[in-house]
Here is the input.
Amino acid sequence: MSTALTFLELTPPSRTVRVEFDGQPLDLPLGANLAAALMVAGVHTLRKTPVSGAPRGAFCMMGACFDCLVDIDGVTRQACMQQVTEGLVIRRTKTAGQNDAS
Ligand code: FES
Here is the structure.
């Protein structure tokens, strides 16, 4: 059983826009849920836990778990509560003790 593509678009997006995720350009569907669009694009780790460094990705998709925290244009936000808009600059959140190599 293949698990390579966990999330698929049922219909192709009518319009995509360019965003940046950790310095890499991504074309995501305009107006889509940001966390879902990132998962479809293959981004599953959005942050790491401060104690063990365990990877975390979107879980509840309704703003309750905070596992989807990312920095969007310099502000820490829940990706599942945001829509894709053109030019977003998204970075994995850094917590105390983490650096770019973590
Ligand atoms: S996925 Fe749980 S708050 Fe975003």
Summary: The chain has one domain: 16-92. The domain at 16-92 is CATH 3.10.20.440 (Ubiquitin-like (UB roll)).
